[in-house]
């Protein structure tokens, strides 16, 4: 039986080298990969086609130069990085790229895609909470367009049954990831913030049943030993993503463990399952319309703050750290609401800025160290 | 019982020796910061003022951007914690602190026991910091220590952008070439710094008393501009440049007491 650290290292190797994950998949199956732009793509459709859905979350500490020709400086750093990689031809071996367009930057990025790889663009309905039935029909039709375009590009037939099977594979993976997140919180003295991130990030580059098997192996390896006492402070992070790894390491250096997250790259993708429905595309549509707690998912009731406050209680967290993706306006617009709700509920909180391009972390270090000192 | 607080900032190095957690027996400031000869020189200077050496220090706390590079430090604490400690020691009525240093600005809210309730820092940008004033002082050919005096000669304040040091520099050059009075531009520069610093204070909520510290607090023009922006008077901490080092020495004393229990 492998140790938890050995398994975590495998996750880290996969998370750090998506190109290899794609090449390995191609070697094993003879099929390639479809790029999945952030955020909230019904990946199950790609999985049902037998291709590897592979996340396109930019790159850490990537120096941006060529992307400046096409993007304003105030586009978020994930998109700056994706644009730079696109211009370098990094995505040219993908079979297709799927774009959702829940923010202005993604909308413009989808229109600027200019590589030999075809882009499939779909829209999430904005009326999902006020006209659910209409929103379900709309989302289903959008997902059907994605399916049909994929069928054309990949020259495959994607059946309702295949999508249903893929939904089951994904739901099993979601359950495994939820369990891992809870076990990581219990084993906070063993699973560092970077470890936790790597395990979850790797799911963007792995066929999901393989990821599930590896996560289950890790959970078993962790549980084989009693959980050592964790003497630091427990936090919940919220935002789009927390990278580069340096930021996660600063949390660790200051005695923090991430016991749960509310990140678009992490838990928001597996917080809930896709419901059961004979019509697989309708099941995916319903899942989107029931989804909550992300600034990119329109909901005038703004339940995100309360969801985080509930998580603070559930996990006995000492505080919440808002990891604001630089120039992500949907998240920035929601921040004042979050702040008011945290203060009303007595939830201690910290705001830090996340920028993939960063190579210096002194300011983040000062903020996090101060927060550790005052908690 | 002696404790040493050493604050290595981006633009200056500061040190304070404290006796029994109350009496400042020596302090020193060297106007170069982390990565320079500043940290070594400030220690030489602070010990040269008294008949003491590093060996006589019972506990040393380092703070500031260069805190992890200080040898002989028993502990490193963030400058926000140390400034709050130092300011509350000097001005117990302080509830809002505006700290403008060499490359960053911070607003800190305290409770009535001196605990930090909230804090915010500027983003990765030199606008609204001491570095911004350095650049403007060079462009305007007004020595940094004269900026405050020149400020009060202005009849009108020019408008200077607060978003970016580089843009503001070219803006100032263009205003100079248009013949705007130098003193008006100096006042405009101070207003720009004030607007940036106050935006931080607004984010945490301004509660009285407002106390200013950091090297920029020595510039009376910036203090005036902040008072006008907040529409109220503010207190400048005594020896505003060494409040972080003082706070570090106070924290060192508390650590020592904890260990001796």
Automatic annotation (TrEMBL), chain A:
One of its GO terms (molecular function) is iron-sulfur cluster binding. It holds the Pfam family HGD-D. Signal peptide: none annotated. Gene3D superfamilies: 1.20.1270.370, 3.40.50.11890, 3.40.50.11900. Its cofactor is [4Fe-4S] cluster. It comes from the Bacteria. Keywords: Iron, Iron-sulfur, Metal-binding. InterPro entries: FldB/FldC_alpha/beta. Belongs to the FldB/FldC dehydratase alpha/beta subunit family. PANTHER family: 2-HYDROXYGLUTARYL-COA DEHYDRATASE, D-COMPONENT-RELATED, SUBUNIT OF OXYGEN-SENSITIVE 2-HYDROXYISOCAPROYL-COA DEHYDRATASE. This is 2-hydroxyacyl-CoA dehydratase. It comes from Coprococcus catus.
TrEMBL record, chain B:
It comes from the Bacteria. InterPro entries: ATPase_BadF, ATPase_NBD, CoA_E_activase_dom, Dehydratase_Activator_Redct. Residues 4-252 form the ATPase BadF/BadG/BcrA/BcrD type domain. Gene3D superfamilies: 3.30.420.40. One of its GO terms (molecular function) is iron-sulfur cluster binding. SUPFAM superfamilies: Actin-like ATPase domain. Its cofactor is [4Fe-4S] cluster. Pfam families: BcrAD_BadFG. Keywords: Iron, Iron-sulfur, Metal-binding. PANTHER family: BIFUNCTIONAL PROTEIN [INCLUDES 2-HYDROXYACYL-COA DEHYDRATASE (N-TER) AND ITS ACTIVATOR DOMAIN (C_TERM) (PTHR32329:SF2), BIFUNCTIONAL PROTEIN [INCLUDES 2-HYDROXYACYL-COA DEHYDRATASE (N-TER) AND ITS ACTIVATOR DOMAIN (C_TERM)-RELATED (PTHR32329). Homodimer. This is 2-hydroxyglutaryl-CoA dehydratase. It comes from Coprococcus catus.
